[in-house]
Amino acid sequence: MFKYHSLNPIAKSGIDVFNDNYVSCDVYKDADCVLVRSADMHKLEIPDKLLAVGRAGAGVNNIPLEEMGKKGVVVFNTPGANANGVKELVLAGMFYASRGIVEGINWLNSQGINDPDIAKNAEKQKKNYAGTEIKDKKLGVIGLGAIGVKVANSATNLGMEVYGYDPYISVDAAWHLSRSIKHVHKVEEIYANCDYITIHVPLLDSTRKMINAESIKLMKDSAILLNFARDELVDEESVVAALKVGKLRKYVSDFPNPITVGQEGCIVTPHLGASTEESEENCAIMAVRQLRDYLENGNIKNSVNFADINMGICESVSRIQIFHNNVANVLTRLTSAFGDEGINIANMNSKSKGERAVTILDLDSPAPEGIMKRVREAHEVIRVRVIK
Fold first, then answer.
1. 343-381 tens-digit pLDDT
2. What's the total number of domains in the chain?
3. Residue 258 is assigned to a structural domain of this protein
4. Burial of 229 (0-12, 13-18, 19+ CB in 10 A)
5. Is there a single domain that holds both residue 287 and residue 251?
6. Which end of the chain is less enclosed by CB atoms within 10 A, N or C?
7. How far apart (Å, rounded) are the C-alpha atoms in residues 279 and 302?
8. Is the CB of residue 227 less than 8 Å from the CB of residue 252?
């Protein structure tokens, strides 16, 4: 029986994926696995019992990944589960930044309640909110992951000329990308040529404030910048300064903060990107399925701190999962522990990611506790799980 704890409300459709072998617990430190959305886990102690964390969403800045890795706690996210919801809001952002939609609505709300001639006055006022169409305009998509590909393809269908930049594009993303999209090799090409620029990359040290004063200088004065990924990807103080002098036309962000909210030229939404019923359900279902496959079979998919590994459904007599540092001769020493006792390893898989690795062993017979003690105490071993 596994215990799970939810640090945030999780869609019922996801919780329903758990079967009778799982029970909800109210105490975080008693849980075998945790589900989380936005709760800050950096301030929480990592219990020795905790095996896995399922993030119902893509971003994992609220989770202490390094500390989790050191204790052999696998952290999953759900890339692509909320991609359509974010894509739709990005497209909406292009529309309401191109036309004076937000400004026009604000004017009507401020004037109309006390104006019996609001229709006539609106006809006079509407010239102040005239905008441009997006058809035949150039859109630059920085980052061609699950969301970026959907945005690029949809924009193509709307008649836009789309440029895509991603030096690390995956094979799966490339297969789903429309052939009409121009894949550029330098992000500066997007800055210089595009009327709209939307960013869809993870927040890393290498991407923090990648949109800055220098990159803004390369952009068209009429450019519209959209940020539905992370606010820290953009030097927003430089963006506000550029808007004030007419260097940028609009900045659309889904991350409210004191720098941008209320500033002229900034359209800020209250972090609505994945806030759809469908996205929340998709993320919850995907997170729980990944947790179950890991807890029951040891398989890892979409982990952000350990390599993906798959040994299928556990049908062997015994399955052992070992988390260890990614150094030479560890596997040799671990497998020798079983060989020395005459226990045959029927199947094995080992994958590494950075400084750490995970190995799964399917055995033809149960592993005696003496051997398991030897494996657990072996140098460079982080954690050992007996799955069956």
1. 999 999 999 999 999 999 999 999 888 889 999 998 899
2. 3
3. yes
4. buried
5. no
6. N
7. 17
8. yes
